[in-house]
Amino acid sequence: MTVLVTGGAGYIGSHMVLALRDSGERVVVLDDLSTGHRDAVPEGVPLIIGDVSDQALVRDIVAQHGVSALAHFAARIVVPDSVADPLGYYEANTVKTRALIAAVQDAGVGQVIFSSTAAIYGEPEESPVSEEVPPAPINPYGRSKLMSEWMLADAAHVLPLRYVVLRYFNVAGADPQGRSGQSTPNATHLIKVACEAALGKRPGLSIFGTDYPTPDGTCLRDYIHVTDLADAHLRALAHLRGGGDNLVLNCGYGHGFSVREVIAMVKRVSGSDFPVTEAPRRAGDPAALVSRADKLPGLLGWKPRHDDLETIVRHALEWERRRA
Ligand code: UDP
Predict the structure, then answer these.
(1) Of the candidates 231, 251, 271, which is a domain's last residue?
(2) Could you tell me the EC number(s) of this protein (predicted)?
């Protein structure tokens, strides 16, 4: 009963590996180390370096490790990067997901947890946004993930396949015990960038757009602690093992913070008044993305433990200091 974690050497995947290990599960990681790190995979967890679309490799891993469930994290995730390289994103996030799903199906694995994103909502008219709002992504990243959601749903009609799709809002923070955190080179995500600025690893940061129709003119996002997110995956796994239905669930806390509020929190927690400049809007950014967050607790009994921006920032900073 091993869980195959693709992207397990990456930021969110490595926290899933820790969560699985902490609860006594067997894990095997498949990662090409394009953005992940060998060190992020704990000792004792097999790391296979390879491509998720290498079907012969995937079938071998399933057979050799007794894999019964797949948690598919490996993906490209940067919105502006997807605008610049759409074909690369469809390849990484859609085409390779198709190959992976087909390979695990061939090998007899019928339980899939898929990492999706709030970017599939685009510029939602309602905020907070519920899972029932029709998807309308506004960038190639969101579309590449939505196509994979649809592919899973279509496949599950005719194959012995059950899935939980988790739509992540803005994932941040780090393992409270300091065992993992975000190490992605050239990271672009706000809390990561702000922590680097606070510790002098970069000269400062820019706010991308101050003329959005939000209270302070900067974008609103729903920041979720990576450890709470990993816990949502454990609950999804238990649901699938218990014979539960296919589900599509938002992963967020249900409240948003503006870019300025996040920066103010990082300055306060770090005690560093790093330089901040105002810059034009970034391509593909919606003004507000906040989750309606009742379905995940209601259906899977998920109880977040770190729903607090200060805690998220503190853990992110502790990780960033450790990496200094
Ligand atoms: N952002 C910013 N400066 C930065 C990085 C991000 O102003 O250096 C803003 C970005 O424009 C967006 C919000 O912070 O409004 C969250 O962006 P992030 O890249 O963290 O996540 P996304 O919502 O794009 O997945």
Answers:
(1) 251
(2) 5.1.3.2
Helices (H), the chain: 11-22, 55-65, 79-84, 86-90, 96-106, 140-158, 190-198, 226-241, 259-270, 295-300, 309-322
Which residue's CA is the nearest one to ligand 1's atom 25?
Answer: 170
Q: What is the CA radius of gyration of the chain?
A: 19
Rounded to 5, what percent of the chain is helix, strand, coil? 40, 20, 40
Please report the atom of ligand 1 found closest to the CA of residue 284: 24
Distance 191 CA to ligand 1 centre (A): 8
Residue 4 Cα to ligand 1 midpoint, Å, equals 30
Over the stretch 16-51, which tens digit does the pLDDT of each residue have?
A: 999 999 999 999 999 999 999 999 999 999 999 999
What does the DSSP 8-state code read for residue 308?
-
Q: Cα dist. 263→269, 310, 323 in Å?
A: 10, 11, 21
Residue 277 makes CB contacts below 8 A (sequence gap 6+) with 204, 205, 206, 207
The residues annotated as belonging to the active site are 141
Backbone angles phi, psi at 288, to 5 degrees: -140, 135
- Residue 106 belongs to domain with CATH number: 3.40.50.720
190-198 helix and 259-270 helix, angle to the nearest 10 degrees: 30
Q: Are 200 and 154 in a shared domain?
A: no
Q: Report ipTM (2 d.p.).
A: 0.97
What residues does ligand 1 touch, defined as CB less than 6 Å away? 79, 170, 188-190, 193, 205-208, 219, 221, 259, 282, 285
Which residues are paired to 249 by β-bridges?
Answer: 166
pTM, full prediction: 0.97
State whether 64 and 165 are in the same domain. yes
Question: What would the two tokens of residue 175 be?
Answer: 């393992």
